[in-house]
Prior knowledge:
Elements (H helix, E strand, L loop, with lengths): L5 E2 L4 H16 L4 E4 H11 L11 E5 L6 H12 L3 E2 L10 E4 L2 E8 L4 H5 L9 E3 L2 H6 L1 E8 L2 E8 L1 H11 L9 H13 L2 H6 L5 H17 L6 H21 L1
Parallel strand pairs: 1-8, 3-6, 6-7
Antiparallel strand pairs: 2-3, 4-5, 5-6, 8-9
Amino acid sequence: MTASPILIPAIGAERASWLGLADISEIMPQGWSLAGGSMMRLLAAERSYAGSRSTHDIDVILDIRASRAYVRQFHEALSNAGFSIAGFNASGQNHRWVRGEAQIDILIPSGQSEAARTYEYPGFGRLLETRGAQFGLERTRKASVLCADRQFTVNVPDGLGALYEKVSALLNNGDSDKSRHFRDIILLSSVLNSQERRDIPTLSGKQIYRLHDGVSRSVHEYTGIISDHELEVASRLENYLEKLLKDRS
């Protein structure tokens, strides 16, 4: 039986951004994955979690390790869907594209070669890197979405892929607002499914260490409102990750 589409109730700029992504997905269905707040929105809706935050923009990671051609193809998809460059960011990159109220930010995984990092891609210039994104790409699957009466398919990491992206985001330079990452990490700790939890011991020691560091920081440093249940689940995950690290030492 085909799963029901994931409902994204959205208005204004958020709705415009999701519908913009729908147009792009029809043109280019592969080679990219959701990230950031839009990824969190989708996962929370998929897993019936009521505490997700809306976001007016869409973050997309391009899988350039699989194929550099995806950069050109995504640029063509943006242009054909009516998006244009919003302007250079502080680092001189064209990572933000807009169409009316819609906004899509383009990112690539960190850890690229010097040549890939400094290459001026036609239409984009130098691409903006973010940590942990390759892990998320490797755990990406397709999901059916329903927004504003339109059904379409997107690529999105599973819960563990999203959690790793989020704990890695704590390490990104120049990101001073850690609280949203802390909140998202606690949320994801609450919605990991059984298969995702079973996959944790298969990760490398470095990956488990990063997960433990991010979950622990979130449990102990987040000062916003969370439920006792959320805190308990995140704390249990912190303890489990700590045990895995000790078992490997």
